[in-house]
């Protein structure tokens, strides 16, 4: 059974930074693409950023390009999301999940969600 645990969220002012972490178990981490997704109140969950098994291929939503950086440490079964220049519209619950499809313009998650970590950006 796949389990993911997200951490690192919090309250930050616009322009600030946060680093999210996600540890995963119950899967062969270094054989799986992984991704970050977010859901704001009243909105559907959307893909934010995804990375293939060795970091050689990534996807970023247009809204976060140039501000967010995804990375992974396969030795630690951990996925990261460095978020800089945060905006109020980045406020959402952030989730990580293994990815079943990754391309230059799309990222599709497996249905294996954790509790998420809340990011709140104040203006």
Task: Briefly say what this structure is.
With 123 residues, the protein is mostly beta strands.
Could you characterize what this model shows?
The protein contains no helices and eleven strands. With 123 residues, it is mostly beta strands. The strands form two sheets. Strands 2, 4, 5, 6, 9, 10 and 11 form a seven-stranded mixed beta sheet that branches. It has a four-stranded antiparallel beta sheet with strand order 1-3-8-7, with no helix packed on it. β9 (92-102) and β10 form a beta hairpin. It is globular. The relative contact order is 0.31.
Please name the defining characteristics of this protein.
single chain; 123 residues; mainly beta; 4-stranded antiparallel beta sheet; 53% strand
Q: Can you give the mean pLDDT?
A: 96
Tell me the distance between the termini: 40 Å
Topology order in helix (H) and strand (E) letters: EEEEEEEEEEE
Strand content: over 45%
Number of DSSP helices?
0
How much helix, percentage-wise, in residues?
under 10%
Strand tally is: 11
How large, in whole angstroms, is the Cα Rg? 13 Å
Secondary structural class: mainly beta
Low-confidence stretches: none
Largest sheet: 7 strands, mixed
Silhouette: globular
